[in-house]
Amino acid sequence: MEGNLFTAVLFATVVAGTPLILTALGLLVNERAGVLNLGAEGMMAVGAVAAFATAHHSGSPWLGVLAGLVAGAAMALVFGFLAITLQANQVASGLALAICGVGLAAFVGKPYESLALPAVPPIRLPFIADIPLLGEALYNQQALVYASWALFWAVLYFLYRSRAGLVLRAVGESPAAAHAIGHPVVLIRYLAVAFGGAMAGVGGAFLSVFYTPMWVEGMVAGRGWIALALVVFATWRPLRVMLGAYLFGGVMVSQLFVQGAGLQIDFPSQFLSSLPYLATIVVLVAISRNPATIRLNSPLSLGKPYRPDA
Amino acid sequence: MTSRRTALKWTAGLAAASLLPGAALRAAEPLKVGFVYVGPVGEAGWTFAHDLGRRALEAAFPGQVKTTFIESVPEGADAERVIRNLAQDGHRVIFTTSFGYMDATLKVARQYPKVVFQHATGFKTAANMGTYDVRTYEGAYLAGVLAGKTSKSGNLGVVGSHPIPEVIRNINAFTIGARSVNPKASTRVIWVNSWFDPGKERQAALTLIAQGADVLMQNTDSPAVLQAAQEKGVFAFGWDSDMTSFGPKAQLAASEIDWSVWYKKVVGEVLAGKFEPKQQVWYGLKEGAIDLGHLAASLPEDAKKLLAERRKGVLDGSRPVFQGPLRDQAGKEVVAAGQALADKDKLAMNYYVEGVQGTVPGGK
């Protein structure tokens, strides 16, 4: 029983962390290029509704994910046009995108509210899923969970081991210098913003097609904001984003298990509900507390518009 | 029917109209009735149930009534503005459908003494403002009866929204219903501290199922709990409205609210010029404002029969939900044998009855 409980908590932790990881890693790349897009909540909502509608009409959850990806990227490009081309204030444009996205998703999603999708069966990886305790929790998951791990390695490799990643970071640190040595700053920023939107769209698709296979207005329920905060508290480091997301998911799930155990202890559930937020902030701040490394890791030009001189 | 957009247009138009002398235009118009909703209308749940009531009202008085609704109004300063706009705009009856609108409604009610205000689930009144509520616990009790009959393990689970008396009352009623069939049944509760977060509701449901619960009830607003039950092959209920499409096998029945009973009565009496606004009504099974409907075809005959019996007991008062002897968790008698709990004690319920596990968060 103890073992089963451990497996159940771990399984649920991974599931709860996945939409955060997908979205936050996309935002991380986005912000590393020096663009701050606060519209994650809106992009996730639009991704979720696009994915649900497509999966419903086509019968294929994968086409749904693709639609979520495209829809998220399209929303992000609208933001990109405002913030990069027109050099509007990034904070204001991002907030506008968040509000507009949530409203747009509600409007488009109206006809889908009473529908449900068939649950997508998890994919059981051969052999390693048989590992006691861990196997069932980690390797009998939805495909998008594995995709989030692949995304993690890809982002890590891209940022720290590839030339393209180096250029992206250079654009985020000093767009003027990157421009001076001939890099297309505007194009790179557009690509980064589109990638951030696409991943937020996939994060939304995970919610509406895999996690709770339905569409209801407001179902993103703040996860976009949490992903944004994760990136900052993780000081723009992929591994810490991953850690933070699972920590958040893990504490959230554990507090539900504690409540469900029906213990006769007087502990306010309101406090338990706030625990995931507290724990994540405290832990991430504690491991990222060195001011020198924060300076080192935060993109210097974050949030500042850049106009390349002719 | 008028949507939010048209309402906004009216508001804009009003600024222009108020410049014109006289408002004789409105004399022959139908009675305007406004509704303020806390959530999106959607296809299920609390706000949807109110909107069904609104539609039934419009259908019941063709040509005599014109309704407006404004959805997703946050409970705060915004609510006051929205309510005032409705009043300014010539609505003569305004229903505010969430607890959090209480003070905003009261404030606007004082400024518009000729408008009738009706606030759902609150407790403050004025000369032109009353409150109305539905005895959702009667639906929860009947759901409990079916749960007690259906559960093999006797281990039941509830996903709760916020630990307030209304929700605690429903959990207690559910447990009392279940234990009236299976005295060994017990209920575990997980609070998600949110009215609406499908992801969290689902996770709470899965947690209860992993801990052995085989029949679930929820006091939250999305169908996520029912959907999780369907996936795991256990049972659950539709809450506030039918949710069959989200769990065709899992839904044993749905506790359905019919707000139209009160809406029609209010408007009918206002039209006849004899409505008394300062009332506090609490409609239940007897008035037809709540019932357990959409019974699953899979329910055995004896379960249906038992349900009909208990339903009758509540209806004719021979077997009220909170009847004595009733003990709280600690074993202290809260209702003596042969007596029933008074309404004012139901409204203040902040303890779990025997059979609910865990403690009321922050309660004593």
UniProtKB/TrEMBL annotation, chain A:
The keyword ATP-binding does not apply. The chain crosses the membrane at residues 6-28, 35-56, 62-84, 91-109, 143-160, 190-212, 218-236, 243-265, 271-288. Its main location: membrane. It is a multi-pass membrane protein. InterPro entries: ABC_transp_permease. It is found in: Cell membrane. This is Nucleoside ABC transporter membrane protein. It comes from Azoarcus indigens. The lineage of its organism: Bacteria, Pseudomonadati, Pseudomonadota, Betaproteobacteria, Rhodocyclales.
Automatic annotation (TrEMBL), chain B:
It comes from Azoarcus indigens. The keyword Signal applies. This is Nucleoside-binding protein. GO terms for cellular component: plasma membrane. Transmembrane segments: none annotated. Keywords: Signal. Residues 32-314 form the ABC transporter substrate-binding protein PnrA-like domain. Residues 1-27 form the signal peptide. It comes from the Bacteria.
